[in-house]
Amino acid sequence: MRQILTVSEINRYLKNVISRDVLLSGLMVRGEISNYKNHYSGHMYFTLKDESSLIKCVMFKTYNCELKFIPENGMRVIIGGYVSVFERDGQYQLYVESMQPDGIGALHLAFEQLKQKLEKEGLFDQSFKKPLPLLPRAVGVVTSSTGAVIRDIINIMGRRYPNINIKIYPVAVQGEGAAKQISKAIDRINKLRCVDVLILARGGGSLEELWAFNEEVVARSIYRSNIPVVSAVGHETDYTIADFVADKRAPTPSAAAEIVAPEKAALKNDLNNLVYRLARSLNQNLVIQRNRLFRVTDSAAFKQPFDRIYQERMRLDIFQKSLIRALQMNFSEYKSRFAVLAGKLDALSPLTIMARGYSIIKDKENGKVIQSINDVYKGAELEINLRDGTVDCVVK
Fold first, then answer.
1. CATH code given to domain 129-262
2. pTM value?
3. Rounded to 5, what percent of the chain is helix, strand, coil?
4. H and E: helices and strands count for the chain
5. What's the rounded Cα separation, in Å, for the pair 325 and 319?
6. What is the pLDDT of residues 233-267, one digit of tens each?
7. Are 210 and 218 in contact (CB under 8 A)?
8. What SS3 state is found at 373?
């Protein structure tokens, strides 16, 4: 009789078969990522595909937390892991233990991804860059306590301006935990406010050796810093994320020391030149002002201060006389014109005519002046205006 199996037994059997296969236990697979999902638990679920097939993949948080880059849909990668069966769903899938970009280094890809991310957020914006102090009283240096870097910085600053106080904050500049140490040092220095400018320094090295200065935690601390930060990591050709976020990039740690610490002899020389130029300018200005004073005191205004007043008073008297004379002439002219017009008006006045024996007759009913015999009728009441009064009468 044929054996009857349960679904669980079949899935378990297939899992055992696949697990014993040497080829599927430790393999490397090349493909393209699609349907990528980063679960809230930290696990990554995605599909790896080529031109004709695909396989489900899972990368648990235990492994993906070590990735230097962020997987994306469409990214070609090389994956290391093993194939097994998920018994509950009866689905075989690839359990990923390692992942690297296909054709480009993981660190280089992570560098470009973080650079693009921070640039979009504005961490590289020039408007946020703080100016360096002209003459700092204290300089903080975050670097390794051993090696040539710190000795070069101390020697150069001591030679250029020995009055500057150098405060060294030793940290690991590479390896596990270096980025966190650098970040904590920057934050700590900002809380203490004990320096005027801060230098992040490290000698040259490979991308892996400089990686601590490419970590996001360091970039965030530099951006938050209220103290100006100078990034001096590696050689002139080396660029890190810290260089883009910092307020100033120095090609080398030695160059950073020269940027931060002015040369004392040059400052003294500049100061002496400024003092000389100021004294010469003051003397020249004094001579100019003295000559102006002499010209003013020699002028007629100072020798005869009231002459201008007297001249103006005389002009005022002349203007007053001219004004009075003009007013009198206008008054005489208008007086004569008034007399002529008054005579004409008097000649035309009805009173003058009445004074010669004439009278004006009006109809008392309507006040109309009687000009013709036809304007009256029998019984009409009239008013006769004479030179010295009026007479009322009736027409018979």
1. 3.40.50.960
2. 0.54
3. 45, 20, 30
4. 13, 13
5. 10
6. 988 888 889 999 999 999 999 999 999 998 888 88
7. no
8. helix
pLDDT class of 294 with cuts at 50, 70, 90? confident
Share of the chain above pLDDT 90, in %: 33
Structure tokens at 97: 């233990």
Give the tens place of pLDDT for each residue, 216-242.
999 999 999 999 999 999 888 888 899
Q: CA angle 341-343-344, nearest 5°?
A: 65
Domain ranges in the chain with CATH number 2.40.50.140 = 7-103
Q: Tokens representing 5?
A: 């199996």
Determine contact, residues 366/377, Cβ cutoff 8 Å.
no
pLDDT, tens digit (0-9, with 9 covering 90-100), for 316-339: 989 999 999 999 999 888 888 888
Cβ neighbours of residue 361 under 8 Å, at least 6 residues apart?
A: 369, 370, 382, 383, 384, 385
* Region label for 311, one of left (φ > 0), alpha (ψ between -120 and 50) or beta (otherwise): alpha
DSSP string, 220-267: HHHHH-SS-EEEEESSTT---HHHHHSSEE-SSHHHHHHHHS--HHHH
Mean of pLDDT values over 191-213: 88
- What angle is formed at CA 256 by the lines to CA 183 and CA 215, rounded to 5 degrees? 25
Mean pLDDT of 93-116: 81
Domain 7-103 maps to which CATH number in 3.30.70.790, 3.30.2000.30, 2.60.40.10, 2.40.50.140? 2.40.50.140
Cα–Cα distance between 303 and 186 in angstroms, integer? 74
**Closest listed residue to residue 197, CA positions, set 111, 152, 133, 244:** 133
Tokens of 244: 């883009």
Residues of the chain with CATH 3.40.50.960: 129-262
Question: Residue 381 pairs with which residues in a beta bridge?
Answer: 394
Write down the mean pLDDT value for the chain. 86
